[in-house]
Amino acid sequence: MRYISTRGQAPALNFEDVLLAGLATDGGLYVPENLPRFTQEEIASWAGLPYHELAFRVMRPFVTGSIPDADFKQILEQTYATGADGVFAHNAVAPLRQLNGNEWVLELFHGPTLAFKDFALQLLGRLLDYVLAKRNERVVIMGATSGDTGSAAIEGCKACENVDIFIMHPHQRVSEVQRRQMTTIFGENIHNIAIEGNFDDCQEMVKASFADQGFLKGTRLVAVNSINWARIMAQIVYYFHAALQLGGPARSVAFSVPTGNFGDIFAGYLARNMGLPISQLIVATNRNDILHRFMSGNQYVKGDLYPTLSPSMDIMVSSNFERLLFDLHGRNGAAIAELMANFKQGGGFSVEQDRWTEARKLFDSLAVSDEQTSETIAQVLAESGELLDPHTAIGVRAARECRRSLAVPMVILGTAHPVKFPEAVEKAGVANELELPAHLADLFERDERCTVLANDLLTVQAFVANHGNRGKPL
Ligand SMILES: *Cc1c(COP(=O)(O)O)cnc(C)c1O
């Protein structure tokens, strides 16, 4: 499989190089040159497969030519292992739970960090280590996090022999659960940095480091945010997994997806284009609603950033949206380069009417306020006894308001465990003893390891250079 850039000017790469690449050299994002397409018979024959075997069938075409089948199978078996020594705490890996008649939550929070990002980052860490061992290479990962990505990336890379990971979070500005999920994981290749600044400061330093990598003395820098193709690829699998349990592919399924960066929902769009009958995809956002403004009114314009009860979707710009725009424009890289240049100059944009109409055949959207989020958490708990996290609650709200057909099963992606967001649960006014799952039961007693650094690029880069080789200088 070859991968091309959404802006048309960067060289095509194979899977292995895309895994290590991050942004394309022309500023675009990598997408498969040709999407694999499965027949209905083929998809139907996967019913009942264990998660890792389904994952193999769905993802195999994407890694062909880079990873032999036997190796890929083994990696997937380890990634999606369940049971006592497993990675995922539920035997079904991603269980479906019924809320109402024909309304389901796909629970994606049974991984080590209790959010759906584990599905992709557990795989990404293993793939990186596999590819790097083969090439006899080491890399450094730098990432910025306001919450869930950092812990999932650290958990995903903690066993990597060939990766040193540096995760920056804004000092004293992430929740205690989220901080402890990062700082209590020890390893000579794991480095937590608390920056005396905000999330944007952290992200700017990551961006600046990618733009000028001289401080790494030749070591490659790798991205773990959702622009990395491998993350999107891993997320396609659970759409198949859910649909197969609800009568697919003989029957269509609809999905409602809490989203910020358009990563998770883009994976659903790909699943449909690969042959899975999906009749509707709902973009569920919080008050940071750039995607909703596009879907409802064909305006893609940067707004202000509002902190909300669903912090993992607090974004101003949706990085993966460019991948959808590329398809909407007939995969014309030059057109996307022009749109994005306009956008960067602060202009924002609309797309031509027929392109927008095309998108609306599949996508609907809703922006959900904090008040509505709290209301939905309380409502669903009263109705069905399920305590939702605020992100999932947004998905449920949007599913109920935007649903096109009651005859089509509606699956809401349950992106996080409610225990990660006690503030939102408290605001919903529901009395509930939130208990950490067994593997995190002693989280608040564990020692923490973290370095506080000034909000200064050179200081951070010097720290990375001095610790980037399993804690030793590069
Ligand atoms: C990251 C995250 C999201 C948003 O994911 P996208 O890739 O932006 O769609 C939603 N919910 C939770 C809990 C998350 O951690």
From TrEMBL:
Pathway: Amino-acid biosynthesis; L-threonine biosynthesis; L-threonine from L-aspartate: step 5/5. The keyword Acetylation does not apply. Its EC number is 4.2.3.1. Residues 97-334 form the Tryptophan synthase beta chain-like PALP domain. It comes from the Bacteria. Keywords: Amino-acid biosynthesis, Lyase, Pyridoxal phosphate, Threonine biosynthesis. It holds the Pfam family Thr_synth_N. Its cofactor is pyridoxal 5'-phosphate. Residues 2-80 form the Threonine synthase N-terminal domain. The keyword Ion transport does not apply. It catalyses: O-phospho-L-homoserine + H2O = L-threonine + phosphate. It is an enzyme of class 4 (lyase). Belongs to the threonine synthase family. This is Threonine synthase. The lineage of its organism: Bacteria, Pseudomonadati, Pseudomonadota, Gammaproteobacteria, Pseudomonadales.
